Amino acid sequence: MGKIVPIQNGYCSNLDYRRICSIDTEVIDTPTTPLIHQMSRFWLINEGQGILKLQDREYELKPGTIVSILPWQISDVIQVDSPLQYYLLAYYFDNINAIIKSIYNTDSQPLSLIEEMTGCPVVQCGKEEYTEIRTVFEQLRAETGVESVKPAEESGRLHSLYVKNKLVELIVLYLRAGERSKTASPPVRTGIQKSDILHYMYNHLSEKLTLANLSKLFFMSESSISAYITQTTGLSFFDLLNEMRVGKTINFLLYTNLTMEELAEILGFVDSSHICKVFAARVGMKANDFRKTYQNVYEICDIRMTRDAYEIVTYIYRNYAEHLTPQSTAEQFHISLKELNTILLYQVEKNFSDFLNFVRVNRASELLKRTDKSITQIAIDVGYNSAKTLTRNFLRFRTMTPGAFRQSIEIQENTL
Asked: What keywords are assigned to this protein (predicted)?
């Protein structure tokens, strides 16, 4: 991109930072310019025709279309055939995601909202689906008011509960419509795009993010990734990381009672002093003062992300090559198998087996890229008993065999 893309602010409402969502009605009658979204949002198209570019992929917009935009994705309406009139709902994705995992997902089934919503961001609803989804939008509008006109006052202590339940209902209806849409016309796999870099960074803030790691994942040189980030956002790689982390810090300060030490670990800061320094420089207010001023006690989600949860994730990362089992890991931390999977589903959106295989495949990818070891030896090095098991999991997570992956790396290096 030649121009810096504007970054949307990190709040649902400019009028009340405590709001978990806001709703408005907007009209687009001419093509827009690209926008980076810090806040999640849904569009429900009621009238008009046009083309949306989201994460460098183009989608048709028409009456009955619902669009899901997640944090740090880039949108641009590139064509307007007739004026687009739509409902715009901005909401805190992390908060709703946490609620669904900890309260609604009682059977602990694997559910990755990020993967589901990223995989089918634009859905053409059937008549009944559109009617159901529009009804939820209108119920939320009646409860919260219209952002650009007059937001409604919070109607007692049940306001928050009502809004959260409606947001969960909306996401369920959208996902069901997306499942039907995939069945009707399976999406074409287009692979990782350059525009996915920002979204990936946001979703992996708790990990050690470096240009070297991104270079391996996106098959781009470190200088190319750095240049893309600066040309797109106007920020350096590290400044962008801090911007993202501050945005998530605001969310946690508003909706949880996590300590600054816990937030520093969760969000990838060095320590509590570091997070407080960066937050004050970016927001102009001390983190604890911000929490006291804006936190709404009725909005706090009763979720405790304890150090034990992060120690479990770290344990699997560090011991992936060992003979790890759900039972042995649960015993290591003195918890039940159900608690183990519940923690992992919440933290990494995968159950024990899926997460362990995910880590092993990533480590195998690194060995395939930087060593000449045989695929059988690499399989053993990362904890598998055979190359066949590695290949099966590699196909699942990389959609190609280990041999094809290594060959693609060699082709790329030869063309540089």
From this structure: DNA-binding, Transcription, Transcription regulation
Q: Are residues 179 and 227 both part of a single domain?
A: no
Q: List Cβ neighbours of 64 (8 Å cut-off, separation of 6 or more).
A: 45, 124, 125, 126, 127, 129, 130
Is 175 part of a structural domain of the chain? Answer: yes
Other beta carbons within 10 angstroms of residue 171's beta carbon come to 22
What is residue 7's DSSP assignment?
Answer: B
**Residue 248: CB partners within 8 Å, gap ≥ 6?**
94, 202, 205, 267
**What are 150-193's pLDDT values in tens digits?**
666 666 668 888 998 999 999 999 999 998 876 554 444 445 57
- CA angle, 168 then 172 then 173, to 5°: 120
Q: Which helix (H) or strand (E) holds 395?
A: helix 387-398
pLDDT score for 402: 93
On whether both 130 and 155 belong to a single domain, the answer is: yes
Residue 352, SS3 per DSSP? helix
Q: How many domains does the chain have?
A: 3
CA end-to-end span of the chain, whole Å? 21
pTM of the model: 0.70
Stretch 32-50: mean pLDDT, rounded? Answer: 94
| 16-25, 217-226, 388-397: range with lowest mean pLDDT | 16-25
